[in-house]
Design goal:
The protein is of the alpha/beta class and about 425 residues long. It has a domain of about 90 residues: 2-Layer Sandwich (GMP Synthetase, Chain A, domain 3), CATH 3.30.300.30. The chain is about 30% helix and about 25% strand. The chain has eleven helices and 21 strands. The strands form five sheets. It has a nine-stranded mixed sheet, sandwiched between helices. The protein has a four-stranded mixed sheet with strand order 1-13-12-11. GO terms for molecular function: phenylacetate-CoA ligase activity.
Length: about 425
């Protein structure tokens, strides 16, 4: 049994970085030339000069809400009375026809193109790491309705050389019956639905001995559920993917974090900004995909994670992340005013003495207060007063300031902590 999906997984890290940075300017040029959105977002950018992570970090981050806003604007009825023929807001390099066999919808609604290239979302790599091999049958319980999840997994399985049963969601008795009769090698879907299927099988008195492995995604996969599945004879591994980007990272048999996919460039930035954080610090995952059909450049996922140090014991040489650690969108409403992580970072940038800042909102709704906790090597009442004035200037709200020594704040990616009582 081949341990690795391909030789890319064991490249020398320096060679991988050189390969990615060589591909990056070409992808940016592709996005500028073939998508209306990035022609605008990256106007004036010399694609050839974006050949390093430092250069990449100078480009703006495009977050999901901005993608949705551009899509919604493109779908509005214009003065001519005709709707736009680009419901994807100018982000897709594909157009309706043979090169785009599907268009999918994610909550929002955000529309994404489906392309014709083999393993379009690059899911075969994660399936291989989970133990699936050519010639096997996979029971796919991701949705085939509206969202691309079912198709993402199916195209990956086909690229791996597997046959797929499109189980979809719901109908647990029929799912159990199909598994019992078809004897698939394993399951792909959400972990919670796999548990529901197994519990239904137990209540029906039906054994499912062939199902010994699973690739799960779409929701949290706590160790308790992983252990529960193991007691029922199933080794389940998780992957992190999105409808926009395809596979981002996947779990290996080492079960030590998630290894980044070979087709993406991942940065971790301070929430509300595009500034990369120090290695190991929690921040927002920002991904640049090398997919020429849907070339998202510095796309903010809104998810928090951190880079794990060292190498993966599985032998794969790519960077590892800790996995999903929460959401980066920490916007709160205080006394009728929205406060954004970007505003807190704007305050911090005014003071070179500030190493790290976190806004803590306490009290009860309609009777709340703000305290800005600041790590600094310089602690004085005068500095606290100046920072407090800056908070008011930026947010139009008052806040007390607590100055703390370095490394006092938790490394959890939080820029704003809502600690109010809602009782």
């Amino acid at each position: 049994m081949t341990l690795f999906f391909d030789e890319l997984e064991t490249r020398n890290p320096a060679q991988r970085e050189a390969d990615l940075m060589r591909a990056l300017p070409l992808q940016i040029a592709q996005a500028q030339k073939n998508t209306v959105a990035f022609a605008s977002i990256l106007a004036g950018v010399n694609a050839a000069s974006i050949d390093s992570r430092a250069a990449l970090a100078t480009l703006p981050v495009t977050r999901k809400h901005e993608l949705l806003e551009r899509q919604q604007a493109a779908r509005q009825i214009g003065t001519s009375g005709q709707t736009s023929n680009d419901p994807m807001g100018g982000f897709s390099a594909l157009r309706y026809g043979a090169s785009m066999p599907h268009i999918f919808a994610s909550p929002g609604a955000i529309y994404e193109p489906g392309g014709i290239r083999r393993d379009y979302w690059r899911m075969a790599r994660a399936m291989h790491a989970a133990g699936f091999r050519a010639g096997q049958l996979i029971h796919n319980s991701f949705s085939y309705h509206f969202v691309p999840a079912g198709s993402m997994m199916e195209t990956g399985a086909h690229a791996l050389g597997c046959t797929v049963f499109p189980g979809g969601t719901g109908q647990t008795e029929q799912q159990v019956q199909a598994m019992a009769e078809l004897q698939p090698a394993g399951y792909i879907g959400t972990p919670s639905f796999l548990k529901i299927i197994l519990e239904k099988a137990l209540s029906m008195g039906v054994a499912l001995p062939s199902v010994t492995r699973a690739l799960v995604s779409g929701e949290a996969f706590p160790p308790s559920l992983r252990d529960w599945l193991q007691t029922h004879g199933i080794e389940a591994y998780q992957c992190y993917a999105s409808a926009d980007l395809g596979l981002i990272a996947y779990e290996t048999a080492a079960r030590e974090g998630l290894v980044l996919d070979e087709g993406v460039i991942v940065e971790i930035v301070r929430p509300g900004t595009g500034e990369t954080v120090a290695p190991g610090e929690v921040g927002e995952l920002v991904v640049t995909t090398l997919n020429p059909d849907y070339p998202l450049i510095r796309f903010g996922t809104g998810d928090l994670s951190a880079v794990l140090p060292g190498n993966c014991p599985s032998g794969r040489s790519n960077t590892r992340i800790k996995g999903w650690m929460g959401r980066a969108d920490q916007t709160v409403k205080v006394r009728g005013m929205f406060v954004h992580p970007g505003q807190i970072n704007a305050v911090a940038k005014r003071f070179p003495e500030i190493l790290k800042a976190r806004l803590v909102v306490t009290g009860e709704m309609a009777n709340d207060s703000m305290e800005l906790c600041v790590e600094s090597t310089h602690i004085s009442p005068e500095l606290a007063q100046r920072i407090s004035e800056a908070v008011r200037d930026v947010t139009k709200l008052r806040a007390t300031v607590q100055l703390l020594p370095p490394a006092s704040l938790a490394n959890d990616g939080k820029v704003i902590e809502d600690a109010r009582s809602y009782k």
